[in-house]
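Onboarding guide, step 5: your first structure request.
Type a short instruction followed by the sequence, for example:

Predict the 3D structure of this protein.
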Amino acid sequence: MVNYPLADMLTQIRNGLKARKLKVKLPASKLTAKVAEILKAEGFIRDVQTVADKKQNVLEINLKYARGHTGAIRYLQCVSSPGRRVYIKAHEIAPVRSGLGIGIYTTPRGVLTDKQAAEQKVGGEYLCKVW
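The system replies with structure tokens like these:
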């Protein structure tokens, strides 16, 4: 049983990159699917698909590697957790690694990157940061 699907997803991606796997599979949820779509749009993963299963849909994430066989993701950290939620106001949103990374937020307008949230002037729960 998974208590926090987002943390489980990030851990599986980290472990998959360390083991140099081409893809990882994990249980799908609306939040993990949206975060995976953002990672794909920002160029951190190659592809993401939701595959129908008998019990629950499965999220299939194709990982991305550079020429030196290092992962496209160097750092992946969950900021909020079920026991410690971190909320950021719109004017407090700061770029991750001087704009080289992304922060992912869940806002009243959906799951957004730090740049999108700052442009739309909305704050929300700070889910994770990636570079």
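Each response can be followed by summary notes, for example: Residues 48 and 61 are 5 Å apart (CA to CA).
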